[in-house]
Amino acid sequence: MFGKPRIAAAAILMWGRGDASAALVGIPWGKHKIKTPFAAKSWEGTAAMFAAAFLAGLGVLCFFGHDAFMTALPAVLLGAATGAATELFSPANGTPSPCPWRFWRCCCSGVSSCCR
Asked: Residues 6 or more apart from 30 whose CB is under 8 A from it?
C-alpha cells in the first residue's frame, strides 16, 4: 500500500462513493429493512454500497492504475463486499466508530495483496 497511490485512491473512492450511494439509495428507496444491533439498514442501500464501491475500485485500478482486469477483480470484489458489510453493521446516527478503519485496513490489504 505504501508507495502505491492507486491503492490508496481506490480505497478512498470505494468508501466515499459507496457510503454516499448507500445513503442516497437506502434512505428514499430502502423498502427491505435489515435489523442490525446498531441500526435498521436496507438491502437496497447495501447493494448500492457494493455496486458503487465495486465500480469505483475497478475504475481506479484498471483505468488509472493500469492493472489487469483479472488481477484487480478479486481485490475489488473483496473490498466492495467488506465495505458493504461494514456499512451494514455501522451505526446510523453518526456516532464515530472504528468500523471505517477496519474497512480501510481490510480493503487496502486485500487490494495491495492482489495488485502488484
From this structure: 41, 42, 43, 44, 45
Using DSSP, state whether 91 is helix, strand or coil.
Answer: coil
- Determine contact, residues 25/48, Cβ cutoff 8 Å: yes
Beta strand extents in 7-70 (DSSP E only): 33-35, 40-42
Q: Is 34 helix (H, G, I), strand (E, B) or coil?
A: strand
- Residue 18 and residue 50: Cα distance in Å, rounded? 7
pLDDT, tens digit (0-9, with 9 covering 90-100), for 9-26: 888 889 889 888 988 998
List phi, psi (to 5°) of 33: -80, 145
> What 3-state DSSP class applies to 15?
helix
Contacts of residue 82, Cβ cutoff 8 Å, sequence gap at least 6: 103, 106, 107, 110
Q: What cell does 64 get?
A: 488509472
According to DSSP, the residues that pair with 42 across neighbouring strands are 33
Query: pTM for this structure?
Result: 0.76
Number of structural domains found in the chain: 1
What is the domain range of residue 85? 5-114
The answer to whether residue 113 scores a pLDDT higher than 50 is: no
